[in-house]
Amino acid sequence: MVWLAAMRTRAELEVRQVRGRPVCSNVPRLAALFLFVFILFPQIAAAADEPANSDCLACHGEKSLTTKRAGRAVSLFVDEKKFNSSVHGSLSCTNCHADLAGKELPHETPLAKVNCGTCHSDEAEQHARSLHGKALARGDALAPRCVSCHGNHDIVPVKDPGSAVAPLKVPFVCGQCHQEGTPVQMNRNIGQHNILENFSESIHGQGLLKKGLVVAPSCISCHTAHSILPHNDPNSSIARHNIAKTCTKCHAEIEQVHRKTIRGELWEKQANMLPACVDCHQPHKVRTLFYSQGMADADCMRCHGNERLHASDGRKLFVRADEVAGSRHAKVACSQCHSQVNASRVRPCETITHGVDCTACHAETGQQYERSIHGKLSAKSDPNAPSCKECHGGHGVLGKHDPRSLTFATNVPDLCARCHRSGEKAAVRYSGSERDIIARYTESIHGKGLLKSGLTVTATCTSCHTAHGELPASDPESTVNPKNVPGTCGQCHHGIQEQFIESVHSATVTKSTKALPVCNDCHTAHSIRRTDEDVFRLDTMSKCGRCHESLAQAYFDTYHGKVSRLGYSKTAKCWDCHGAHDILPPADARSHLSRANVVATCEKCHAGATRRFAGYLTHATHHDPRKYPFLFWAFWGMTGLLVGTFVISGIHTLLWFPRAMQMRRELRAAEARANGTGENGSEQANGSPPRDGDNA
Amino acid sequence: MPEGKQEVGRAGAGDPVAVVLQDHSATAGSGAGLAGPRNHREFVRFTRLHRALHACMVVSFITLALTGLSLKFSYTVWARALSHLLGGFETAGFIHRTAALVMFGTFVTHIVDLYQRRRRSQTTWRDFLFGPNSMLPVERDFYELVATMKWFVGAGPRPQYGRWTYWEKFDYFAVFWGILIIGSTGLTLWFPVFFTRFLPGSFLNVATIIHSDEALLATGFIFTVHFFNTHLRPEKFPMDTTIFTGHMPLAELKRDKPREYEALLASGELEEHLEEPQPEVVVKTIRAFAWTALSIGFSIIVWIVYAMVFAYR
């Protein structure tokens, strides 16, 4: 046995030496294997204490043979039939389970892990260098071993459709780990998501899985079977500079149909200067393209480059090549959008029956649009419904980050205004409560920020209404539905939203059948002002009173309210005491008006305020004798005094009046007598009827 | 009135005043038939200080009324316009407090003046306070009130009033009371933080009601009852300016305050109380001032009626 062990070691050494050679073709490796098998096999067979396969199967042929591993029963059954027909059927058990050699049977458990690398040294080495192998070396329990993919006793040749790693099965072998919800996808840093799902929907996946085209690429076609490396490893088949090589393994002549993109041989020579395939064709989402392969823009421009080209209905059909070249779609071929062309026709476009369908590429956006009010109108063939082109333009389409684009932030209000400005077609159809939307927005803090200050992060129409999913506020799905408004505003005003959702006005705090206020109920939807502006402070005051009617009315009976009503913003308004977004009932310890906080709240304006000072009734009314008896009686006491005084003095004056008139008449008469008798009457006038003379 | 004649006669034989007085006594009640070269000398009813204090009262009172009511009736358009005209609620508040200080000053000056006059008059407090020239209501005022009522209904003659009639005393104490009540509550509202150190916070609410309603009473009373009783009575129409000029025609003194006239005549002090009339320009200025005050007062009444009756909330 010692000799045998020595022989095995030598043989292994030989194998390793062979493996160490720079050129590692299969011929010397197989030769070594044969040598090994032929030289050693007779001796192994001859050795009496070497267990034969039949010895092993005496136990392992029993289906009931199990063992416990990590608390679970694991079957140790080996199907003799399957094993014999497997690619390893001619080998002895001990060839792989080498540690069984010379052991007494039944042997002790567990056995050492089988080292496939003893024979499959290249694969083992690739695996060791790969992502999977390194993970295994780190002791990652999730890392796959050979058996994870290949199985163990029933391994059949790869060409056999029954193989675990037959082309059709590869996606599922990889997908055991690389699909949503698996421990690997959840716990390891995997850059892609929905890998198996996306792949199976891609043109590659459909070819392979739907059409059973075994030459269609599976995972290993791009990632390799054993040298799986991350894309940032320069040796990886999916490293940026290797992608072209990887894809051209199948798409050998791809540059013929990518003339515009790759200018021929640049593809191979300077792949890093060019977009990699995956830049346009998402790695696992390689789409079915509807356009006719083999069409080039030059073919289209032969006719459409002519300025005088017109359709039979008079439309100009001239396409300015420079417009397309400067557009977002500069790298998109004509036929990708005008997808019904047929390259085999002399006039390839004669097969076109429909307009451009942008959703062929912009599928998600298209779905949003279909759900939007714009899309719904469009589905009803409403002439007012805006199409993609109306907002984005045609051949000259630009990205939303290009300041020249119609959809650049600062241009959006003007874009929407085309239909939504007062008097325009959308404004005329609209029956809601908002008026002069565009004009008001332009004067609002958002409008000024965006249009005057050019602050592109300021909210524009699409920030609240979304770009493609616009819905009326009455629609519960709408971003501007009251239910969703806090979240919509919270996209930017996150801190405020956090305060608001804790407040008494939040639907999560107060369960009420009445409509709770949301952002726009106080701030308005389109006329939003700075909150430190007087106009805002005064306007908003009346808003609380829409629900808190009696409180607001009583507030206007106090000094704070009266000054506010005079048109001044400095005295305390509702939110100066109650808070603006973090309003809580005074009974809540966090409230600005809680026992612990109220004095500090008063002190914001009244330095040195005390707890007694805070006892001032800010919503007092003298009309409620039960709640405020002091005020009630003070008011009615004063009113009684007032009325009493006026009644008594009024009667006194009224009674006096006829007597006073009588006196006046007598004085006049006396004066007349004096004037009649004396020549110096005017001087005397000073004396007698007192003032008439002065007045004369 | 031989005694009176003698007294006056002592002042100087052939003195026109004596003639005047004599004539008066001869034609008592007629108020006419005066003769003599200097018969236009007038009775000085109010000293310079009194006139100045009244003018200060007029200015401060109207200012307080305008600024205060603009807040009380803040719900009217007038109030907003006025508040903006005055330079905003803060400026209006400043003006209000300044005017209040002027009124306090007037009040204090008056009290100090009373003390000094008592000292000069060399009488006891008792005599000073309950003498015929005192503002304090006395028993006689009650009888005069009753007699006046009889006169009103034609059941008796016009009473022989003294220096101060009962309604004048009422006006005087209305102001006295008003300054104490409105002033004290006003101070509370001016310094709320200080006063709530020893008063409950809700007292500020009570103070607001008292301050505001008492002010309404004061303005309403002054601009209607006081105006009628003192300045606009038909027999004095269009305007009694005595409080501004300080002067009262002798005939009017004799007619309106016969008891005072008789007493002065009897004590022979009348001559001391006579003065040349105010120069024409002073009278004109005073008239302009008085009419302005009166107009503002009436406007305020119109405003109050509008706010209380037509726009009340």
Notes on the protein architecture:
- The complex is a heterodimer of chains A (696) and B (313).
- Chain A has 696 residues and is mostly helical.
- Among the domains of chain A are: 154 residues, no CATH class; 56 residues.
- Helix content of chain A is 46%, strand content 1%.
- Chain A has a two-stranded antiparallel ribbon with strand order 1-2.
- Chain B is 70% helix and 2% strand.
- In chain B, helix 3 packs antiparallel against helix 5 and helix 3 runs parallel beside helix 14.
- The longest helix of chain B is centred in the middle third of the chain and has 34 residues.
- Chain B folds into 2 domains: 71 residues, no CATH class; 187 residues, Fumarate Reductase Cytochrome B subunit (Up-down Bundle), CATH 1.20.950.
- Chain B is mainly α and 313 residues long.
- In chain B, strands 2-1-3 form a 3-stranded antiparallel beta sheet.
- Chain B is globular and about 60 Å long.
- Classes of the chains: A mainly alpha (696), B mainly alpha (313).
